[in-house]
Amino acid sequence: MTIDERALAMHKKLQGKVGTEVKSPISNREDLSLAYTPGVGAVSKNIHSYPESVWELTSKANTIAIVTDGTAVLGLGDIGPEAALPVMEGKAVLFKEFADINAVPICLNTKDPGEIIKIVQAIAPGFGGINLEDISAPRCFEIEEKLKDSLNIPLMHDDQHGTAVVVLAGIINALKLVQKKMSEVKIVISGKGAAGSAVAKILTAQGATNITVADRQGLVGKTGTLTDGIRGADIFIGVSAPNIVTAEMVATMNKDSIVFALANPVPEIMPDEAKKGGAKIIATGRSDFPNQINNVLAFPGIFKGAMQARATKITEKMKLAAANALASYQQNLDDGHIIPDILDKRVTIAVAEAVETIVRS
After folding, report:
1. Is the pLDDT at 75 greater than 80, yes or no?
2. Do residues 148 and 132 lie in contact, with contact meaning Cβ atoms separated by under 8 Å?
């Protein structure tokens, strides 16, 4: 059976991947009285009198909502909220497995940014954080910014910032290996959507000064094509489309070039082709090649650290701290090991501690 066939069989057998965890099993009448009526009334009255006690008396402190409208799901595009549900369930599994955070998929049957904002504001009291997921650009920018301003719990659009944090960590370590400085390298980013915009922003915050962005029409704000932009570059970061870069284009980059081809499942250029062009360090979003840039290295730890510190927002400083902690975690650097293994769950602890330290400082 192919991986697709096995995945379909597993989902059919399990009827999804998540369920409800009961911390207070009911085996007798006393259990029922404590978990529900009449005992639960005392808990509700306590929270009504002392609103902050909700963090101690309910699951709010360790539960987030994963909110999507299904408009930008994986590489599948606008497939709708129901088809997005398996992906949101998968994200919930990752939150639980890597950070022991409970996560609830919320799939919305609306594409209207204003309506999405109102819905998230309305459901926020039941959650300690909000993870926005697979919402298309540019709508995702407005939704995130307005919710960040109006909510008092951590909120992050993972497609933007989770990707950006892991990319930055990988670039930090790649630059160590080629002995170049962030402030001196020329960087070209293919894709100006959610991920591309966030990557450019966090690289600038880390000290990058020469960043060119390209989209389908060519170089943004400049004359020329992606081919022109890559010429003489030190770093290429692709968050766009498959097979748009050739070995010949990579060959025009500077010596010891760095290529992050992150389009999934087919990258902008396959690693063997990038090698032919002379790339020194290559990363993709795939698990079958070295240096996998995967959001799971970032978002569980960012949310865990933010929620443990009772942060009201996820800030740029917290993202930078997460990226630098992720980079520092990877020891014994070489061309094929610039980023931690995605299955190393200790990474979440390191990232969470860095984020929590920033919040409490």
Report:
1. no
2. no
135 closest CA partner among 118, 104, 160, 115:
160
pLDDT tens sequence across 251-294: 999 999 999 999 988 999 999 999 999 999 999 999 889 999 99
Same domain, 89 and 188: no
Q: Where are the alpha helices (DSSP H) in the chain?
A: 3-14, 29-35, 40-49, 54-57, 81-99, 113-123, 139-150, 158-178, 194-206, 226-230, 247-250, 271-276, 299-308, 316-329, 346-360
Give tens-digit pLDDT for 329-343: 999 999 999 999 999
Q: 196 and 314: one domain?
A: yes
Nearest to 294 by CA among 169, 140, 145: 169
Answer yes or no: do 152 and 162 share one domain: no
Consecutive H or E run containing 104: strand 102-107
**pLDDT on residue 336:** 95
Q: Give the per-residue SS3 of 199-264.
A: HHHHHHHHCCCEEEEEECCEECCCCCCHHHHHCCCCEEEECCCCCCCCHHHHCCCCCCCEEEECCC
Looking at the annotation, which residues are catalytic?
36, 91
Task: Out of 157, 178, 210, pick the residue that ends a domain.
Answer: 157
pLDDT tens per residue, range 141-172:
999 999 999 999 999 999 899 999 999 999 99
Q: Are residues 19 and 98 in the same domain?
A: yes
pTM of the model: 0.93
Q: What is the DSSP letter of 21?
A: P
Asked if residue 96 and residue 195 are part of one domain, the reply reads no
CATH of the domain at 133: 3.40.50.10380
Q: Are 212 and 222 in contact, with CB atoms under 8 Å apart? A: yes
Shared domain check, 216 and 151: no
Whether residues 309 and 172 share a domain: the answer is yes
Structural domain of 292: 158-361
Domain end call among 108, 129, 157: 157
Place of tokens 């009291």: 125
Strands 155-157 vs 258-261: parallel, antiparallel or unpaired: unpaired
Task: Give the total number of structural domains in the chain.
Answer: 2
